[in-house]
Amino acid sequence: MNVLWFKRDLRIEDHEALKKAEKLGPILPIYIFEPKLWQQPDMSYRHYVFLQECVSELDRSLNSLGQKLIIKIGNAVDVFDDIQKRHRVQTLWSHQETWNGWTYDRDKAVKRWCESHNISWHEPVQNGVIRRLKNRNGWSARWYQQMKQHVLVSPTQLKAIEEQSENLPSPAELGFRDVDFTDLQRGGRQEGLKLLHSFLNDRGEGYTREMSSPVTAFGTCSRLSAHLAFGTLSIREVFQACERRNQEIKKMPRGMKGKWPSAMRSFSGRLRWHCHFIQKIEDEPCIEFKNLHSAYDGLREYDFNDEYFEAWKTGMTGYPMVDACMRALAATGWLNFRMRAMVISFASHHLWLHWRKTALHLAKLFSDYEPGIHYSQIQMQSGTTGINAIRIYNPIKQGIDQDPEGLFIRRWIPELCDMDQDFIHKPWQAESQMNGYPMPIVDEKIERKAAADKLYGLRKKNDMHKEQVQKILSKHGSRKSRFPRTTDTKRIKSNAQGELPL
Ligand SMILES: Cc1cc2nc3c(=O)[nH]c(=O)nc-3n(C[C@H](O)[C@H](O)[C@H](O)COP(=O)(O)OP(=O)(O)OC[C@H]3O[C@@H](n4cnc5c(N)ncnc54)[C@H](O)[C@@H]3O)c2cc1C
Known about the structure:
By secondary structure, the protein is mainly α. It has helices at 16-24, 35-38, 45-65, 76-86, 101-116, 139-148, 189-201, 207-210, 214-220, 225-230, 235-251, 260-283, 306-313, 320-332, 337-350, 355-365, 371-382, 395-402, 407-412, 444-461, 463-476, and strands spanning 2-6, 27-33, 70-73, 91-93, 120-122.
């Protein structure tokens, strides 16, 4: 008997581990609820309810093939040990997982267990992330190779195996509480497919221009991130759906194409970034905890201001664009890229808060929390990678550029709902209309300059800085691609994410 362990791949379509395991004979498909994982400081209620929806849909899909999903509760090694006592397990199958420090250590323990029980553990790759990569040369070409492989259809039937299944605990049993949300995304593959279809055929046309403004981004962006994080859709399926749509667009008469070609180009590039960033944590797991470039160690550690942290978390900094974003995020579990970058930049630069605590807070709020992308981006936007341009967003300018009429601000900050348009981005200038909204907790200009001076000063003075930069670039930096293989070959010249396109 072969065990198929579902992890962050909660689907039966395009599932290489399932396909291969099933060819060997009867399989036991299991999902292990690991209490210790869910006690980690980056885990939260909203991840859990999304997971529950994904797991119950996966169970229905497997049931329709003749074998229910077996849910087990406990440490993975103990669960496998227990199963092994009742069945003769020959192989273990799961997709290769690149997640947080806890799952990394757990996988090492599972590997040891498999070796000591003479069970071979097969881990096919479900994305474009390469294990034991030496450097980034040729990475992009390998990513395209992986994305262009056939999407695998699900098995048509599975032989039932008797094994007891448990129920997932309720969020309350886990001690999870979340009172702030009003509008979280739903989990499960059907939801993911609906989003993919509506994005590619309807919502996504204005993507390139509209992705940066929170006024438009909630509707225009694909909103697939949580589905990719939980694996209800594979990144290859999404990439190939985008390629097919691109072909359709190409065949349209010139006047009918609208902004679709640009939208598809931008979107396809971001799917590659998804894996590019996860590759960083695969190659250097410690970026979850430590600065990528050690020159930044000690810079913020001793200055942490808890009052600033509290104001930032609760959307009470006095900077409307930052506060509207933090409140919108608490309610919906999502923010667009530009606003994610702005809120962390504000925390790391203007408030000079070390990124580790702010990153954990955001991790818990993002339904789509994906450690590889998250910590790489957090460090980029906090200026601690050494290889990226230092970017300090001015939240007033971002407000004026991305929400000129203050629609987003008024929606999420009811205190400012009736504020005169002239003051919506600088409400402190209209003190009488503040309705309890706070004055700014720091001076934007002074703190931006102070942060820039510290960071640029450190880069300039330090010879060791340069030396380490070369090593980091060789290991993590994106290369100019000789393979611009999206169906539309126009290259993206630069990107707000701060690295060259792969
Ligand atoms: C501080 C910070 C933290 C972030 N944390 C996460 C995270 O935990 N999980 C996460 O999925 N994304 C994260 N991102 C990246 C990005 O903001 C989200 O992927 C995106 O907003 C998700 O919305 P969407 O699915 O509509 O994306 P779309 O714009 O529709 O893009 C499609 C897909 O491409 C990928 N993608 C898009 N932008 C990026 C990017 N900049 N880097 C890497 N992949 C990208 C995502 O998988 C996304 O689902 C973070 C960005 C910042 C600045």
